[in-house]
Here is the input.
Amino acid sequence: MATGIKDKVAIIGMGCTKFGERWDVGAEELIVEAFQECIEDAGIDRNEIQAAWQGTCIDEVNVGKSALALALTLHLPYIPVTRTENFCATGTEAFRGAVYAVASGAYDICLALGVEKLKDTGYGGLPSIGGGSLAFFTMPNMTAPGGFAMLAQGYAAKHGLSMDEVKKAMAHISAKSHYNGSLSPKAHLQRPVSEDQILNSPMIAYPLGLYDCCGVSDGAAAAIVTTPEIARSLGKKDYVTVKALQIAISSGEELQYDNWDFDHFVTTSKASSLAYKEAGVNNPREEISMMEVHDCFSITELVTYEDLHISERGKAPKDVMEGFYDINGKIPCQPDGGLKCFGHPIGASGIRMLYEMYLQLLGRAGKRQVQNPKLGLTHNLGGFPFMNINSVAIIGRHDV
Here is the structure.
């Protein structure tokens, strides 16, 4: 019977680049920037890494289809290096490969690194949807803002809320994240924005305005994982362990034949329930200390609060307006500003989220430090409301 991976894997080092419009560097330089911080933090030699995973989603123009870019750039010692791609969960998928390899006993020390030079891809980082029957049948004219605008409409209708109520909650979410981002030196956007500015910004796809949408950025992030025993042998006393890591992918039910009302993400609900069980979390509203969720749009973050079983169905706007998810609230969400302020270089985002949770758990987050965190949750959503991938990871202090 499966027992899960709780506390079988320790994170001993992490690194993250400055996110933004990094026109001055290529993907290779971003890889090096993230890796240098990561390996110095881990306190090991590069030759001690036994296997690696590279997360890159659509940036094949710069890094190619294989993981050779990672192996060549870092001069890794002829070890297995695997490229992963799973839509917006790509970075977490790379992390999952490294974590499962250590948990299985196949390797002692592994690297996961996600990178995306998105500003150099497609039209300003927004490539067109590829061909094939899947795209033609399910989303021939779909845009990301259009798809998630429909989610906002579905959510309001499902719970009997006015669009003004939903928009005000979304504005608070974005303002909260922009404030947190102003405290994050590696964020792309570092300027506070008021709720009035957000509500009066240009409309992108009703009801989503400019500040309800995350930006397009370049970036990379990395993690080195090993066993808790090896972590202690390296002199790590206050290290972080992986408590759970789950991914759920749409089966087609919500799109084709289930009683789904376009108001939430079935996959987030499924993945989070499995993650809580694996981590031994019985009441996430009381036990989770902080979160980084996939706020590609402010409505996504709002809905995710409920899909993570923290806010009751239809009650997330009330929690938002009461400050439950603010930096000084019960469960701070996006303490570093989230995708809203970092943008979304797809291959890097999942590991960047873990990086913030890691810093917070070790008390290294500076002005945005959450008080006495014990468990941090990260969440990635890939795809569209009706067809998606959701990953949920929980990490925490080794003594929790």
In short: The CA atoms of residues 63 and 69 lie 6 Å apart. The chain is about 40% helix and 20% strand. The longest helix spans residues 163-181. The chain has a mean pLDDT of 93.
